[in-house]
Design a protein that fits this description.
Helix content: 40-55%
Distance between the termini: 36 Å
CATH architecture of the largest domain: 3-Layer(aba) Sandwich
Number of domains: 2
CATH topology of the largest domain: Rossmann fold
Radius of gyration: 18 Å
Strand content: 5-15%
Number of strands: 7
Shape: globular
Strand order of the largest sheet: 3-2-1-4-5-6-7
Number of helices: 9
CATH superfamily of the largest domain: NAD(P)-binding Rossmann-like Domain
Length: about 270
């Protein structure tokens, strides 16, 4: 796998879940990868995984809701590898600022606090925008760039109890389409992935629903998949990373402004 040899990628939220899977897959395709996440420990673990497998990675701890930190992240990528060709905006915080939640809490709209709303937008929509602003000048000057933003099927179908998360993810999709139209003349494509992937957050969600061990969790996931997911849950590296690698490559040069429903055949959405 060599479709990304010579390219440099930044992946945010890459300490775990789909971000980790994407970072590992991009490295396997030959990209030099900047692993970015809030936790230095998880960043270092993913960097070690990539480098020990023969890839090339460095890491940076970053809060994507802080524009100065995002700018430093981009600067670190340029200092380490000389350029930035690919940006995957995956990071997203939930709950109150500083929360360690990895899954949005279900809260009725009328009970949703302004603090949670602001933090969701700051780390989701604005964090995505900060990253795009940060990499744009270099991509424009080189007339080549790939930006991949992460949306959510839950936003498209407006899952009850997740107003802040839903609206943030839909705003990211709108931002994606607008940037795609404005930046096409600079050789930059901007696309969005809406994944149904078995991430750490999904596993935690089933634990909170009552799964007492891994075997029971798998039974619950299989039962849901039988009702809703024709192909079950996707894999972070194989499926999430596979699509991201394609969108980051020259093979996707004529695709931009699109939302890809990486959902194993769940079906059309409104």
């Amino acid at each position: 796998m060599t479709k990304l040899v010579g390219k440099v990628a930044i992946v945010t939220g890459a300490g775990r879940g789909i971000g980790k899977g994407i970072a590992i897959r991009l490295a396997k395709e030959g990209a030099r990868v900047v692993v970015a996440s809030r936790s230095r420990d998880t960043v270092d673990q993913v960097v070690q995984t990539i480098n020990s497998a023969g890839g090339s990675a460095t890491g940076v701890a970053v809060d994507v809701g802080n524009r100065a930190q995002v700018n430093r992240m981009v600067a670190c990528a340029s200092e380490a590898f000389g350029q930035v060709d690919i940006l995957v905006n995956n990071a997203q915080s939930y709950g109150l600022p500083g929360s360690s939640d990895i899954y949005p809490n279900v809260t009725p709209l009328e009970q949703l606090s302004e603090e949670v709303w602001d933090n969701t937008y700051q780390t989701g929509l604005k964090g995505t925008l900060y990253g795009m602003w940060g990499v744009f000048p270099a991509m424009r000057d080189r007339h080549w760039g790939r930006i991949i933003n992460l949306g959510s099927r839950m936003g498209v179908v407006s899952t009850p109890g997740l107003a802040a998360y839903n609206s943030t993810k839909e705003a990211i999709r709108s931002l994606t389409r607008t940037a795609a139209r404005e930046w096409a003349k600079h050789g930059i494509t901007v696309n969005c992935i809406n994944p149904v992937i078995a991430t750490d957050a999904v596993l935690t969600h089933f634990d909170e629903l009552g799964a007492r061990n891994a075997e029971e969790r798998r039974r619950m996931m299989d039962a849901q998949a039988e009702k809703m997911l024709p192909m079950g849950y996707g894999d972070p590296e194989r499926d999430g990373g596979g699509l991201a690698a394609f969108l980051a490559s020259d093979d996707s040069r004529f695709l931009t402004g699109m939302t890809f429903l990486l959902d194993g055949g769940v079906g059309p959405v409104p």
